[in-house]
# Entry
Amino acid sequence: MIRRVKQRYLALKIESVESFGDEDIKDAVWNAVTQLFGEYGASKAGLFLVQYDRQRKEAVLRCSHKALEMVHASIVSVTNIRDKPVAMHVLRISGTLRALKKS
Amino acid sequence: MTKFVDLHLCAPFRNVDQLKKMVTKSFELGYRLVGIPLPPNVELDEVERLRKICSEAGLDFVSRVDLTPKNTNELLANLRRLRRKFEVVSVLCMSKPIARQAAKDRRVDVLSFPVAKPRNRFFDSAEAELASESSSSLEIDMMSLLSLEGFLRIRLISSLRKEVAIAKSFRVPVVISSGAANDYLLRGPRDYSALAMLFDMDSSLAFKALSEVPRSIVERNRLKLSSDFVAPGLRVVRRRDP
# Structure
């Protein structure tokens, strides 16, 4: 029997004076994963942008639980988006979206 | 709750607004003790002003001096002059003789190495042996990991991996600090712990490098700088009333 792939949800805070779109956030994280771990690493990450609140500058990202450390390190390494300085902080990590929103 | 320490917050201490912004950000990220590098000729009232700003933000302030000596004589002269003025003394080792002298000198708390030149990172097993005997620590500034890109970052990660492995085998304490000069380069302790996996540092060791190790350096030096200190292991407990 094929085992279900476990996921992890990460709540992110994006700090910048600029406002960015969904695509910018997605691209920034994908680029960071590819830069640090290569295409092979990125293929294991299973990254998906679940939601992004443009006003509050908060996002929820989903990844494979096996690639959590890799994705966390990559998110932290993002320092600019479209040549504008940015800091991304991981606020919370959870196994379910419901628990992530509760905590 | 773990008391996280950022021993190298490179906040511009004359720019009060930026300093307050960075100090507040550090508190929000979970740090409770910050070390801010100061120039060797800093006035005492400026140190007190910084201490006040930090305490208003809820942080414990640690005075720190970063020495970049040109030769070993300059290093020794600086240590003689500055050791009792600052709570933490760090030496940026630009050459092998300086690195060796700094590692064997008990007055040096933190050893750091240039980021841009991997050949000038002299933290090998001989250096680690000297450092472990004199209880100096190896400092890793995470700012360089964030700001470098491409080949330079690859070389840095590779050097750090070797250095952490050597430090582990010789039981040299490792300190992880931000080295951040602006608030966009500041990250939380858990974020740094995630980044530390890049150079094969497991999370328990990374948390120690962000809390226990720097805290013990500060506590040891505060004890030494207090008026009650007599010698290692000997301090005044009570004075006779005059």
Residues 150-169 of chain B form the longest helix (20 residues). The first strand of chain B starts at residue 4 and ends at 6.
